[in-house]
Amino acid sequence: MSLVTVPFYQKRHKHFDQSYRNVQTRYLLDEYAAKKRTSSRSSSQKSLSQKSSSQRASDRGSFAATTCSICAKRVSTAQEEEEEHEKKRRRVALSWWSHGVRVACRHRASLTRHTAASHGALTSACFPGQVEDKLAGDRHSYLERMRRAPEILVRLRSHTVWERMSVKLCFTVQGFPTPVVQWYKDGSLICQAGEPGKYRIESKYGVHTLEINRANFDDTATYSAVATNGYGQVSTNAAVVVRRFHGDEEPFRSVGLPIGLPPSSVLPYMHFDVQFLEKFGVTFRREGETVTLKCTLLVTPELKRVQPRAEWYRDDVLVKESRWAKMFFGEGQASLSFSHLNKDDEGLYTLRIVSRGGVSEHSAFLFVRDADPLVTGAPGAPMDLQCHDANRDYVIVTWKPPNTTTESPVIGYFIDRCEVGTDNWVQCNDAPVKICKYPVTGLFEGRSYVFRVRAVNSAGISRPSRVSEAVAALDPVDLRRLQAVHLEGDKEIVIYQDDLEGDVQVPGPPTNVHVSEISRTYVVLSWDPPAPRGKEPLMYFIEKSVVGSGSWQRVNAQTAVRSPRYAVFDLAEGKPYVFRVLSANKHGLSEPSEITAPIQAQDTIAVPSAPGRVLASRNTRTSVVVQWDRPKHEEDLLGYYVDCCVAGSNAWEPCNHKPIGYNRFVVHGLTTGEQYVFRVKAVNAMGMSENSQESDVIKVQAALTVPSHPYGVTLLNCDGHSMTLGWKVPR
């Protein structure tokens, strides 16, 4: 019985060559075959010697009568010595063969321990046929262990190249048997014969290469490589973007641009499939808190260096990173974080993922309530502070008023300014300003300032608004007269254009003096500098006169005005005024300008009227949709405030804390099953309107389910002039 059990289907596979065997094993087997041949020859010689010895014995028997006893003794001794020598030689050969087989068995056992454990080790009693079967079975099991599915070691990488350049895509794959690799362009198999010379495909030592010669704009695509063998299949893909350059643009210099540049230029050529796995919902926060709006995405294909563009919008206005807002996009996430919330941050936030395949978006509302007031009953902080028409010594500041649902009405505002780089806040106005706009004067030319606003009511002063963006006190006219020539590095030469200065000493009078803004408390005058103006710095003096008085009074006797705009305060209510402007430099004072038309200080806009009918409808288990008619007089509207109240009570609460610019609003955070009524107020720079009429009482519960679409649309009849269609009702 064989000591090694080999399956029958392995015994019949004798076609393997012997090259896989170990050198020492092959040597032992060769020696064993030689010894076998030697032993067969020795056995045949022994039989012949036995026959000859028996013949000689008979001859000796017949010759014994004539030979002596001494000769017979010598012959027997020689025969015994020859037999002893033959036995010794056979013992040595047998011991050597046994030792060789044991060495071979130990060596094979060290190489294939688990095979020896399952099939048994060769011993000194193995027969030659069993050795060959054993080695053939080991080779087959070794090949079985080597076989595995393809595995990609180095994946494809995306490339962005210019037209008429070559691009090479490489990846490395391993597997046994050797995988077969096929290349695809946007899912279509690449055929070298279809476009001779266009593609070059190579495979060396597991490294597979696709080279695209003289790429053109049509080669922009997603390229995939698929490796397949009998045990599995793997694939890798990469994007190739071929850019066109125009005019004098040099492509080879542009290729060396930093990798960190935004990939927006390549996005229109890429197709991504975007799925939202987790979405941010309606969020409620308070001023001063932090919040992060985050979505988890599944972007296909997943490319590290080329991704779709993520954009955040608040009320359809693109949000940019600032000291308060930080954005992140990558690793399957898109987030927008606020480190210090203000009511400016309230609104409908939309995340849009933009690619060649289209736009995927998600929206939800962020509510930001007022922080606790510093004084009980004080109003909330103003919001949305903006700076306009900045000049050398003044700037116009605007803002939006807070909602005063539970507080007393706002009677005015205080405006504060602070020079950038300091913490010294200076109040700009002594008395509260009733309109949400104020020209701040007294700025120093060339310095930068930030501003804030505080609201005032009968209970006290509110918290300050969010600080505005820094604005420089410079005249835009002077900025337009500066021409910068950029040199290498960060150096530049600034050239001052003096074509209009002329060779004059005393300047001429200003021209085009007119009123650019009128309110009840001030008038803003604007004019054009004289031409020619001279090379010396200019100053302006403004004079006013009550119509019919015949006398002129200088407005800025103590302060020289350097910018061609000025806000005139302290005008008597109901009296018309005329104005004129003079220019001056170190050489003298010009003649007065032409006199303006009579101007009377008054508000040009009025408080808006109340909105019309308010209609509330069901939405979800915690929200209601509120719609209303616009007011009849909606001059310069800033938006609307919506209030809600539990039916039967008079405890009104604000639904939004920042004016919304449309006449429809979804009120969230309501109690399911409770009954509510709603009202709306219109807002502009002069203040808030009266409250609208209250809506009908509505119970908060989910709306009826929206029906599904009809189906089974069928053409029933067609007579050449008309068609009759039929369909099935929605499921």
Folded structure, characterized:
With 731 residues, this protein is an alpha+beta fold. Helix content is 17%, strand content 37%. The protein has 7 helices and 45 strands. The strands form 12 sheets. Strands 2-9-8-4-5 form a 5-stranded mixed sheet, with no helix packed on it. A 5-stranded mixed sheet has the order 11-18-17-13-14, with no helix packed on it. Strands 30, 31, 33, 34 and 35 form a 5-stranded antiparallel sheet that branches. Strand 33 and strand 34 form a beta hairpin. Helix 2 runs antiparallel to helix 3. It is elongated, with a radius of gyration of 49 Å. This is Myomesin 2. It comes from Canis lupus familiaris. Keywords: Immunoglobulin domain, Repeat. It is found in: Cytoplasm, Myofibril, Sarcomere, M line.
Spatial gap, N to C terminus = 76 Å
Describe the largest sheet: 5 strands, mixed
Structural class: alpha+beta
Average the pLDDT over all residues and give the rounded result: 79
Q: Quaternary state, please?
A: single chain
- Runs with pLDDT <50, length 5+? 12-20, 57-72, 114-127, 246-268, 483-491
Q: Tell me the β content.
A: 35-45%
Helix content: 10-25%
Principal-axes shape call: elongated
Cross-sheet strand order for the largest sheet: 2-9-8-4-5
What's the total count of β strands?
45
Radius of gyration: 49 Å
In DSSP terms, counting alpha (H) and pi (I) runs of 4 or more, how many helices? 7
Subcellular location: Cytoplasm, Myofibril, Sarcomere, M line
Domain Fibronectin type-III: 381-475, 509-604, 610-703
Protein name: Myomesin 2
Pfam family, one: fn3
